[in-house]
Amino acid sequence: MAAQAEAPKRLARYQSKRDFTRTPEPAGAPQPPPPAPSGPSGPAGHRASGGQGARRFVVQRHRARRLHYDLRFEIDGVLVSWAVPKGPTLDPGVKRAAVHVEDHPIEYLNFEGVIPPGQYGGGDVIVWDRGTWEPHGTDDPAAAVAAGELHADVHGQKLAGRLVLVRRGDGRPDRQQWLLLHKRDEHAVDGWEPEDHPRSVLSGRTNDEVRADPQRMWRSDLPASEASVRVGRPAGPGNAELAALDALGHGGTWEVFGRQLRLTNLDKTLFPARPGEAPVTKRELIRYAARVAPVVLPYLAGRALNMHRFPNGADAEGFWHKQLPSHAPEWISRWDNPEAAAGETTTYLVVDEPAALVWAANFGALEWHAWTSRADRPHLPTYALIDIDPGPATPWQDVLALARLHRTALEHLHVRAQPKLTGRRGIQIWIPVARGPSFGETRAWVEQVSRAVGAVLPDLVSWKWDVREREGHARLDYTQNAVNKTLVAPYSPRAAPGAPVSAPIEWDELDDPSLRSGAFTIRTVLDRLAERGDPFRTVLDTGQTLPPLR
To answer: What is the C-alpha to C-alpha distance for residues 491 and 421, in angstroms, rounded to an integer?
Structure first.
């Protein structure tokens, strides 16, 4: 009872390290331990592993600044936790270092997702294993932890048998050094490594897949063709919220996605009209940003965003705005660049929630350009980029011909990629890659592919850097594969008449004679999404290795 009375205090350190308006982690409240069952199962310390009152454990694979595993045991209404850099093992001949960290709330048993950059423990988390456990040799596991030695019989989907945690010397109560080992019992397996078993037992996904699309999970009760389903995806604004936006007049406070946003100059024209159409106002841009934000979010989350601002509209001169302004709301996620030199951008916007994109649109960001690397490892790209940049004399049919040749080359190489209209005159091709190669390596790979394509139609292509020296020809721009160089994000508007959108397309649409680069606008692309879905989702699976080229 004394331990239970102390439970509220045990989460104080966990809660003090986190801003629950920004992190999706549970705030938590200590819960009473489940009652011990009556009958042959005996005292609380010896509950049946699968019955009422069984204690639970979880292991999370957590990629923060460094990869580690978090081992958590349910004790007295909280999860008593250790960080294990190399992960738990079934190998009885291996001893693992472990660090005793702050207690976590019981709700953390089911936590899987992405902790935003800048937050404590920022990174992706999966539920690597979970199950039930019983303390061995004691009825009071909390006292065993305090004494420095815990024996636990675990019954998980990956881990089974007896784990032993032993404290090594003294240390801060929340940073004590321990050893973790597995006893040599019937569940022991020599040479067993946790990294050989990378998928979540909750969703069936890897950390890369959770990072790429936090709202998708695996349903093991469905056929394989139907098992990958979307869960918890944030909905766009409802009719009542959109009506409230329309009723604001020239400006005011709009509550959307659980945030209150101060909007200004809503009736201002930002995009000139196309022939036969009305100009596009700031209100329309903000409406579009809110409606498309749940679709765009996986392409922006965890990445620094370069904003291309046109506060006076697309027919006036715009400028790049990278530094997050001091007046940005506190709830906005941000990334502090540790390598920023004097005069360079120190703090970038990170769009980790839909409301942040609406804020950027109100700030005059007509175009959204996210980094192709994530903020946690900015020098390692997750995409290789092919940019077909037409010259003044390049007809649309030549752009299509170059895109089709890249399609053939990538098919021959068995490389997964997806094309996207720029919303201007060009086409981009995004190739998802597993983190590991540098920007220099992806740039060299793309250059080799594009030069092979260019050699097929040499009269269409110039390799000159200066536009004035290209004689109007297209450039296959592999140099975009560099840190802090960006291509416009999927579904971003472009600063041009009619508010065209950089719209992803299917490969076979390159053969459609009606296709045009600026075909889709903020007024039409949402209907396309509703009808056809998002073809660009394939690039979110970043577990691809680029093959060597001869």
So the answer is: 10
| Domain final residue pick, 196, 230, 264 | 230
Read off the pLDDT band of 465 (50, 70, 90): low
For 200-228, the pLDDT digits (tens) are 887 777 898 888 776 655 444 444 444 45
Among 171-175, 230-234, 319-323, 395-399, the minimum mean pLDDT is found in: 230-234
Q: At what angle do helices 396-413 and 439-456 cross, to 10 degrees?
A: 120
| Tokens matching residue 332 | 């906005």
Same domain, 323 and 426: no
Buried b (16+ CB within 10 A) or exposed e, 473-508: bbbbbbebbbebbbbbbbbbbbbbbbbbbbbbbebe
Amino acid at 359: W
Domain of residue 209 covers: 2-230
- Residue 157 or residue 172, greater confidence: 157
Q: Which two tokens stand for residue 318?
A: 């715009």
- Cα(281)–Cα(472) distance, rounded to whole angstroms? 34
Taking phi over 0 as left and psi of -120 to 50 as alpha, with beta for the rest, 494 belongs to beta
Confidence of residue 44 (pLDDT cuts 50, 70, 90): very low
Distance CA 524, CA 506 (A): 17
Instruction: Give the chain's radius of gyration (CA, Å).
Output: 27
Residue 31 to residues 7, 28, 107: CA-CA distances in angstroms? Answer: 8, 9, 10
Please report the pLDDT score of residue 136 as a whole number: 95
Whether 148 and 33 share a structural domain:
yes
Q: What is the secondary structure of 312-336 as a DSSP string? A: T-TTS--EEE-SPPTTS-TTS-EEE
CATH (domain of 410):
3.90.920.10
User: What confidence tens digit (pLDDT) does each residue in 4-38 have?
Assistant: 445 557 888 898 888 877 788 887 754 444 444 33
